[in-house]
Amino acid sequence: MARYLLLLQHLHHQRQRVPRVFRDRQNPLDYTDDDNLVKNYRLDRHLILDLCAEIGQGLERPTRRSQSLQVSLQILIALRYYATGSFQSVIADAHGVKINSVSRSIHYVSRELSLRLSRYVNFPDGRTQQLDDIKDGFHNIAGFPNVLGAVDGTFVPIIAQTEDEHLYVTRKGFHAINMQGICDSQNIFLNVVVCWPGSSHDAFVSNNSETTMLLEENDYSDSWLLGDSAYPLKRYLLTPVLNPTTQGQIRYNIAHKRTRCIIERTFGLWKVRFRCLHKSGGYLMYSPKNVFTSLNQLLFFIIFALGEAFRFPTAMATMMMKMMMMAMKTMMMIMKMTQTRRGTKLMVDKCVTN
User: Fold this and answer.
1) Rounded CA gap, 49 and 193, in Å?
2) Tens of pLDDT along 57-83?
3) pTM for the whole thing?
4) Which sign does the torsion angle of CA 103, 104, 106, 107 carry?
5) CATH code linked to domain 23-115
6) Measured distance CA(115)–CA(97) in Å, rounded
7) Which region among 29-33, 85-89, 155-159, 333-337 has the lowest average model confidence (pLDDT)?
8) Whether the Cβ atoms of residue 77 and residue 102 lie closer than 8 Å to each other
């Protein structure tokens, strides 16, 4: 009996070799058309191939195995996560890989993109042609002269942290990172600050940024940023007049609002393209350090992929136009219903009066 139990115990603890199973990996670039590539990955085929050439050397693995992930597949896995903010298990099933491979792909792609961010996000120095072009672009919007850029902050939602959790609670009641951005008239980021929790005030983030130090130490005479009322008024930062009383102050506020709102539009376009940054796509389930890396690499996409102007690809532009047309039709129907009700009320009032 004792021998029998020992034999069963030996068989139970004996490690059995599990045969290795290779899953069927299909590269979406081989069978997905351009419209679906834009829909699922937010970039078209040409831009994805350019991205592979840009960061491919850092993603190649020195291995003799034949089953390592291709560079293009790693980039597509990361793009799918940035575009949807979905769970990594869902992305693994969609691409025929394991969840560990998805996690590593997102990490390595984010790292490579973050290392290249400084090449594409640069605040203009002194009197250069880039600075003159930025000023001309802002002046063409509402006639506001000598504008260096529009500055504002936005919240990127994250899950509650185990350390210093209260610091990440925003005034709106959710956990987030407070990111500051400065953009030009073409919706291109010139500077970003991604290192402060959600409870930080916009003015505090601005005062502790490198851009503020640059503007204070260097000569940017007759040039300024445009910010909302959350920022302090400085010689290089203009804010709206809180209680305008003269026609000049009213015109100033109108021109200031039309020019400054470009930064809010830029944040909106950024979050529409990469849903992992928006609450509709779910909260970023990472530590703040990893969130900072993700934000930096998504900014790289805006500059690298969109070139000189922030514009949607054809498929997304068509979708946005359809949404705008539907909204306009809805507004027209509401206006017609309101006019009909007003007309009916007037007729009833006349009958009652007569």
Assistant:
1) 29
2) 889 877 666 567 889 999 999 999 888
3) 0.74
4) positive
5) 1.10.472
6) 26
7) 333-337
8) yes
